[in-house]
User: Fold these one by one.
Assistant:
Number 1:
Amino acid sequence: MAAVSEAARDGEDAARDYYEPLDSEYTLDMVEKFLGPMIEHYFRPRLLGLQNLPAKGPAILAANHSGSAFPYDGMVLDCELYMRQRERAPDEKCRSVFEKALSATWWMRPFGIDNFWRKAGAVDATFDNFDRLLQRGDRVLYYPEGVPGIGKGFRRRYQLQRFSSSFVIHAARNEAPVVPIYIVNAEWIIPFAFMLRPLDALMMKLFKVPFMPLPWGVLAVIFPFLWYLALPARLVFVIGKPVDVAAMVREAGVTDLTDPDRQVMRTIAERVRRGMQKGLDRHVERYGRWPYQCRLLRKHFRLAAGKRLLYLPIAWVWKFVRHARDRHRPPARNAVHRFLRDWDLLLYYVPFGWFLLALTRRWRKPPCGYRGLTEEERREREGAFTWHLKDRPLPPRP
């Protein structure tokens, strides 16, 4: 029955046009020109336990999230895995899954860049999409805490929030190991983020922002560039040994994976969460005592002489956005033209510049805005839709 269903699904996918928003050229160029050096000199990551990472899928790479408002921990981890993977298989990339709240509105996308997550290889986090990625043999980078993991605030640092039970079902259906990845020190990127649930609910209702960190979020309302603020915490990523979640499911007596007992799945998810919490506590004790490592930071800034401004958060908006735009326009005629054609980026540094930024996006032509585009063209360009693999399947793996 499962074989028939899978064959029918393959035939259904083959009948549709493939959709691959991953822009490998853009991603590699971004990493090599400034994202990679920025990460190397500012966050100075350590990636440990690489031998525990499966060379091929299917596999679920489950990581904890930091309690700050912007997911730099996920971006740095994705970049580190990508650079390590390129040494062995240049065309391979872990597929992150992301919550739609992180792309539904332009101010929730990194630096307002259209379709950023998908261009970097991510896929919308839906139940069916997760299953299809594992069936393709992908290694899926997943944050089982979801948005609550990012929005838990500094007071609950390193306290893993409730895990969704869906990844347990996916792991069991596809015999995919769950590989824990422990992220240490990311909580110190924004150590002054505190949450109020009623305020978070109001922000989600009015602005589609799932949380409003205090007091830093209020400052970010005034100066938009502060939304992307990050302190130079040294990020440590420890890849743990794979967990055979499928065996846990079998031991629990579950045989029907099309409609499993949800309570049993939640119990197994909680077992995985408790195991990861113990591992996280152990690695925090070992690697989290000095989160900033200022001596090492000074050393890196000496090595970055002449380019130090590039590695500071105040310049990141300018670098990211201009790089994305330059891929869709001719080279600047001179230095003055290079500056003036991106004049609107100065609004990130203007008090209450969010409203003016929104207006310029409407008034300016592509690649700086949407003037002249139909509503459908704009929606496609922004990526402001939920991507379902059943409707727009990825091409077959190489």
Number 2:
Amino acid sequence: MALQREKQRISSSEVLQALADGEDIRLEGCTISGDLDVKRLFVKDESFDTSRMEVGSRDETSVATFSQSIVFNSCIFEGDICFAGPWDKTDELTVIFKRDIGFNSSCFQGQTRFDGVVFRGLAGFDGCTFQRVVGFRHADFGARALFRTARFDGYGLFSGAVFGKEVRFTNTCFSKGGNFTGVRFGERADFGGCHSGSKAMPIYESVHFVRRRHGDEETFWRFVKQACTEAGYYQLAGESFYHERCANFWRRFKCLDRGDSSPAKRPARLLRAVRLLPEFIFGRLLFGYGERPTRVLVTGVLIIIVCAMFYASPYAEVRYRSDDQCSQLSPMDGLYFSTITFTTLGFGDLYPDQTNLTTRSVAMAEAISGACLMALFVVCLAKRFSRG
């Protein structure tokens, strides 16, 4: 037995009874009237036949398992859709979909709730329109989850959700923002082209990416960056830009392992890896992609102190302009000489002995690093304070 209809008007009670009977459901272009609330199956006044329904309990939580194939293509849901417990007691009911479930290109005119639902098969919501609040709080997506070209006209709640496999939000619009607090992404999360239809900024505290060293979160941070920029939160946009660039670096780094492993290709892969090394040291660690000016400042101070300790040691030979003989500098004079060397100021009252190659080499290296770090620091400050 199966519930198959096309371009018809069907009551939600008929759909609920088909769910309880374990029938396959395939509706194409249909309109479902009334509230499709799975809790109605447990209300005695509703008079549903649940004798064939797979119902259990776990830690004082009712568990309803649906093993049939469920497809709602291009359907219109006029009422609320609820496959969860009440808003304030979501743990009272857990719904499990064992097989693939699809709502592709459907329109949800009422509230939509899949809080705590376990999707063991594909969860397809491509092209859906959610006109009111939609909740996937603490949902468990065991297989792929697809929300491509979907539109969230209401607030999207994904807090605490677990995406065990790939999830795609490609070209999805969050008109009133979304909540991704505590979301766990097990594999690639594709937010390419995802955007906000207003100045609503998504909430993304404690978002966890299992494969951070694969760069799978790059498009997520790009989406957050664009939303923060449009909303005027430029500091948060800068932080998102930093995470985006880090993810981009790790993605390019991991791509080196995906190529041809033949011996003839190894020198080329090694060369590409060496080319990424300066970006990793200067761009990511030191410069912070322009978002970490304090790193540049701290690095400069450390270089000045270390070089000052060297200049004040017996291994260095620094001459006073007024003295023909080399003498060991005091700690204060060593710090003074290190500072004017780092800043390339050079008053000329102190200079490294021309016969001591080590001292001259350290002075040259400090001068070069000082010129570079000061330029980076200025760029960092200009980038952070010129936004908006």
Number 3:
Amino acid sequence: MNDTPMRSGIFLAPFHRHDENPTLSLARDMELLELLDALGYHEAWIGEHHSGGFEVIASPELFIAAAAERTRRIRLGTGVVSLPYHNPFILADRMVQLDHMTRGRAMFGVGPGALVHDALKIGIDPDRQRPMMMEALEVILPLLRGEEVTKNTGWFNLVRARLQLRPFTRPMMEVAVAAARSPAGSLAAGKYGVGMLSIGGTSPQALERQNANWSLYEETARKEGHRPDRRNWRFVAMLHIAESREQARRNVAFGLEAFCDYFRDVATFPILPPDVEDAYNFMVETGAACIGTPDDAVAYIERLIEGTGGFGVITELAHNWADWAATRRHYELMARFVHPHFEKSRELMRESYDFATAHHREFIGKAEAAVQAEIERQGGGRGEGNESSPS
């Protein structure tokens, strides 16, 4: 794993303050994907939410279809589709269409649904969400492989169902299951031998849960005859970097508190305890986030690698803690100075520079000698010509 270049990505829920123009918020998310494509980010995962007024993308498939027309290389995944909210046959059919429309750049991230209000407003008992996810996944994967499925669960009924299109990506598009605090995601990913998208935090306590989920994934995968591969493990982390720690702290004053308020007041996933008064200090001191410089980001990600044993993609949570100008600068700094460290793309450059430095005096001497020899050759030739020419 240490010899494998790490890939880079984002997890775009997205998060926007509810006092902003939602039309412009969606446009800004699209502009972000265009920027990341130009900067060489490998992938982006786009979420599905229907409540709370903060995470405003309802259909990741629609968003991906539009983004695919505006980008060239970046892979685009649903991050995630909430399986209990959809008929699995119709969902599989939409994803195969998206696979074709993106020429294989689409990825299929799935989960049970994170916001309780989303489930309640369409009559789903939150206790049923994880079992429903497993039931849906059990039929979606064979459908994506082109197989025929018959299954009646009570909430969906498939009768000799088979998709009319083969997938663009053979044997099927890449699939990943979200895993947070519950073991359901790692069990599902391991059972079917697909990727895992971990969104459980980065504090030392959170890393213990993440490792437990990965161990469960490995155990389950091997039991089912699959070979677990850490390259298919996406690890979500929170970062914001600038030229200095002081500048980074000033930048996040724009939106960090609103982000934390959303998780205190609405979302069911605890980012920080309700009695914390200084979100910045809590995030940095507990290791829940990196707010600092490119060097701080490298050290932070190195800690995550050491604490987990390694993963395939460092996936930044697109949190909008800073305004757009500072957010753009963050991603530019990540692409210029942080990603190359983990992509192992500049080692040979450093070796070449060091070799040239170590032999600089020798090379200067050779260069000067070569120039002097050429001067003498040219000067000697002109002199001989002058002597033979008529006066």
Number 4:
Amino acid sequence: MKTLSKFSIGVGDRFAHQGKAQLQACVLASKQGIEVVPVWNKSNREHLIIGSEPSSTRAEADAAVKALGWTKPYFCDADHINLGTLDRFLDPCDFFTIDVADYIGRPAELSTIAAFTKNHPELTGTIQLQGTGETIVITTDQLSRTAAKFLFAVQEAGKVYRKIESAKGKGNFIAEISMDETDTAQTPAELLIILAAIADEGVPIQTIAPKFSGRFNKGVDYVGDVSQFAREMALDMAAIRHAVAHYGLPADLKLSVHSGSDKFSIYPAIHESMRKFDTGVHLKTAGTTWLEEIIGLAEAGGPSLALAKEIYAEAYAHRAELCAPYATVIDIDPKQLPAPAAVSGWTSDQFTSALRHNPADPAYNPSFRQLLHVGFKIAAKMGRRYLDLLEADEAVIARNVTENLYNRHIAPVFLGRHP
């Protein structure tokens, strides 16, 4: 049976060119005595935008593993799939992020809700969450309302899971359920009820991605109360431990933090919670590699810097179109976006200082960074013009990719070391 290691990291690679550089960050962690398993993830939306196939993600991962002699586990993730988008991922993938966010709030059959409530009297009353010093209180009415809100979504996850199982075989893939792309964060009480429902549905998930409070915008730091996030993280880990003990879910079930890219301010809280509960997390960092490619091109100067500026100019011109699919996970201040004419005169240092996520640098521009984060469609349309420069400047780009993934993500979250 395939199992996910205690520590794992989702690495997105929009153009399937940075697999070796990404894997090198996991190699560096291994040299520190920590196994961090890479999971290459790319959503159906990203494949459609770029015009790629899931098989390209698998090919890049396999090539990187062969080149670096990686002997530990690794996976290829069908990211944010549902019944409508699953089929093209079945053959190349062995990790499936089942996204049920769109189904939350759709009512299940009244008889199903009533049966769930009747079958789980242990979920009402006061429940002690070990390791937190806190309790949660769930009333019968709250149990019924939560079931009404989430049961349909869990049933949909069950349908997707069973289709994957029929194609891949039981135990031959990792299953995750994602419900993070919603408007409202799930409470620890709701998470516990959801996990009971997932167990009833017979879905042996190894990770679950709830929505936390605060803003998880693409490519920039967390916006919210860090102490509140830390409390939620601890309570959710305790809820998972309780569910594993009571409902037969996999013993290694862990939290998945989506849109985790560059959430530097909450990384200490994640590390502390993992240490406290002796558990792991799955951290998704999709999108940062694409930005490191642009940073590397800008550092390389010459035609590569010119191309980076051209990508920004086109992204600026088409910003409404590019931002629309990501409206819930970006906050761009149009007044903070520099005019393309001004950017055309920038040096390499000016461009990289504005783009690289270094809040201590007065030149860092979060709006500039977020626009380029969603601007990979511009590079995709360039085809070989873009890819040829990626290959020509591989050394400088790879250095940026590896340093970013290891120093800014792996080391703080899994090693407790902060830049």
